Amino acid sequence: GVLAPAEIHFSDSVIKTAIRVTGHYSGWVEPETMARLGLRSNAAEAWESQGGGKFTFKDPLGTGKRLTKRAVPSGQSIAKYVASKLLKKNPNAYFYRHTEPGVEQWTGDWTEEERNIFLSVASEFGCGDKWGLFSTYIPHRVGYQCSNYYRQYVIPSGWIIDENYRIDSAGGAIYVGSHKRG
């Protein structure tokens, strides 16, 4: 298996129409969602307005207390539990695993409309990280679904070219990381 950059794997016509990203999302929460939920206008304000604290993996809520499995409701993963507590403090973490409160999460195939929204948001703000924030633009989807869709369909289809990915001989997207120095 040789890993090829998009420019070698895809035809010139695909390369010409693809959206190019650096692997980073530069936006914040979708503005109407932010207003509806009373979220702050950036990550630093959100974190500090909700008590601040230092994030560690032992204290992911920044409360100064170690989180134990006993504190998590039975049958729920620690990650999903922690994320459920972070809507206003860390919206990226919350929306990575949860939809907006009261909004049903869809599963299954993505619609053409969802694909078009995805590509529009990527064109405006980039993509490749902060999938929770990215997903706020796509109703009924959460961040991990956006991340999976990106790796399994978007990059292999040539709709987006991300310099952090290569294409394997089967046409799959393989993350190779940033090759930029400095």
Which features does this protein show?
182 residues; 2 domains; two-stranded parallel sheet; 4 strands; SANT/Myb; Myb-like domain-containing protein; Homeodomain-like_sf; globular; 7% strand; mainly alpha
Structural description of this entry:
Residues 108-154 form the Myb-like domain. InterPro entries: Homeodomain-like_sf, SANT/Myb. Pfam families: Myb_DNA-binding. This protein is mainly alpha-helical. 40% of the residues lie in helices and 7% in strands. It is built from 9 helices and 4 strands; from the N terminus they run ααβαααααααβββ. The protein has a two-stranded parallel ribbon. Strand 3 and strand 4 (173-175) form a beta hairpin. The radius of gyration is 18 Å and the shape is globular.
- The CATH topology name of the largest domain reads Arc Repressor Mutant, subunit A
- List how many beta strands DSSP finds: 4
The proportion of residues in beta strands is 5-15%
Overall 3D geometry?
globular
Q: Can you list the strand order of the major beta sheet?
A: 1-2
CATH class of the largest domain, anyone?
A: Mainly Alpha
**What integer is the average pLDDT?**
94
Helix content: 25-40%
The number of distinct helices, counting runs of at least 4 residues, comes to: 9
For the largest beta-sheet, the strand count, sense and barrel status come to: 2 strands, parallel
The Rg value, from CA coordinates, equals 18 Å
Question: Would you tell me the structural class of the helices and strands?
Answer: mainly alpha
- How many structural domains does the protein architecture include? 2
The CATH architecture of the largest domain comes to: Orthogonal Bundle
The parts where pLDDT drops under 50 for at least 5 residues are none
Name the CATH superfamily assignment of the largest domain: Homeodomain-like
